[in-house]
Design a protein that fits this description.
about 400 residues; two-stranded parallel sheet; globular; binds S-adenosyl-L-homocysteine; binds iron/sulfur cluster
């Protein structure tokens, strides 16, 4: 039986056409699933009964199974989701004044084995399906709405110009006129970051259809600037993303030179910094934003000296970029420590003085282990399977 969450806009249209239906049925059904967040085909009241019956026999809407749901005092909320075979993945909701951000996982575990990452330390288990990836966004919106969390602020939608009908003004073909969030102008999740468990580009074929749903006006309708994919630097797949579905890009840098980056981010041995920098510039030719965000985890005594900051200034000389310094989030068994605050500030000052916009990431979700790099699902002591080489040499599979 087809899980309708697995189908991107083109896949949903093909599904109906193959069964002799008009392609606009796909839009109708997408509105029900991704804008009204129903999980029951029977609820799609604007489909004729025979069509509904056929659909109920052929397909279902199967969202994630929640193992644990925790909320921190700052409102950050983490869902631990079953990924089968004793594995789990996590998604994290981060409310802010002007937005609601969901941090989404793309793989159960990760093969790339960065030295400072809890997900990497658990090894690779499997790629998430498109349905499991978009299911995190579907579930978070649905759950938050059910709990009465209204849309976050953000720029209010401007009124439609006279005579112009917007999709959520009218809801032809089952549009979301009665969707619970219409009064607020948007559902609770306004931004998505692919920064949870896993390397999204290593699961390209399932991640891109999920991105397409995030961007599609008949589904989540997020602008490309509000969807950010974070990668450790799989260069050929950065090019593919640029060509097939460009969204805002974050690149995990973590070191100014190859010797150190080889140690911290092992994929650097395959795609060293010079190649990565050029790939960033190529990406910007088609990116929705005119800069790349470089993420840089601050590791005490490892990559946080003034000389490292000066090295970064040289390294990114030709790349339009911003820096986001992430204070290291420790996890049990790690050899690393977080850099002291003053050292992070001094590091920031060197970058800023060189004209690079540099922010320090605020740690959110304390007490529920919801911060970057702490997401580890349920897997304990799993034997690591280092599949990095295979994944990067066979990106299309
Ligand atoms: N695989 C992708 C996206 C997931 S990791 C990537 O590596 O970019 C999201 C971010 O968290 C990355 O920048 C990653 O380097 C960082 N990170 C990993 N472990 C961390 C930790 N323990 N503390 C702080 N940041 C960490
Ligand atoms: Fe994988 Fe990203 Fe963790 Fe590296 S930092 S092991 S790429 S999830």
């Amino acid at each position: 039986m087809t899980n309708l969450l697995d189908l991107d806009p083109a896949g949903l249209a093909a599904f109906f056409v193959e069964h002799g239906e008009k392609p606009f049925r796909a839009k109708q059904v997408a509105h029900w699933i991704h804008q009204r967040f129903v999980d029951d085909v029977g609820a799609m009241t604007d489909l004729a009964r025979p069509l509904r019956e056929w659909l109920a026999a052929e397909a279902a809407i199967r969202g994630p199974t929640v193992i644990k749901d925790s909320t921190a005092t700052d409102g950050t909320r983490k869902w631990l989701l079953d990924a089968g075979n004793g594995n789990a993945v996590e998604s994290v909701y981060i409310p802010e004044d002007d937005r609601g951000t969901l941090c989404i996982s793309s793989q159960a575990g990760c093969a790339l084995d960065c030295a400072f990452c809890a997900t990497g330390k658990q090894g690779f288990n499997r790629n998430l399906t498109t349905g499991e990836i978009i299911g995190q966004l579907w579930h978070a919106n649905r759950r938050l709405l059910a709990d009465g969390v209204s849309a976050m602020g953000g720029p209010e939608r401007e009124p439609s110009p006279p005579g112009v009908q917007r999709r959520d003004d009218h809801g032809e073909h089952g549009g979301p006129t009665n969707a619970p969030w219409v009064a607020h102008g948007r559902p609770p999740i306004t931004n998505v970051v692919m920064m949870g468990m896993g390397e999204p580009l290593a699961n390209f074929d399932n991640v891109v259809p999920a991105l397409r749903l995030m961007l599609d006006d008949n589904a989540y309708g997020l602008s490309r600037r509000r969807v950010t994919l974070s990668t450790s630097g799989l260069v050929p797949l950065m090019d593919r993303l640029r060509d097939e579905c460009p969204v805002a890009l974050a690149v995990s840098l973590h070191a100014p030179d190859d010797a150190l980056r080889d140690r911290l981010v092992p994929i650097n041995r395959t795609y060293p910094l010079a190649e990565l920098m050029v790939a960033c510039v190529r990406y910007l030719e088609r990116a929705p934003r005119d800069f790349v965000t470089f993420e840089y985890v601050m590791l005490d005594g490892v990559n946080d000296a003034p000389g490292h900051a000066r090295g970064l200034v040289d390294l990114v000389r030709n790349v339009p970029c911003k820096f986001n310094l992430i204070p290291f989030n420790p996890f049990p068994g790690t050899e690393f420590r977080r850099s002291p605050r003053e050292r992070i500030s001094a590091f920031q000052a060197i970058l800023s003085d060189a004209g690079l916009v540099t922010t320090i990431r605020r740690t959110r979700g304390e007490g529920i282990d919801a911060a970057c790099g702490q997401l580890a699902g349920q897997v304990q002591d799993r034997t690591k399977r280092r599949l990095a080489t295979r994944i990067v040499s066979a990106p299309a599979t």
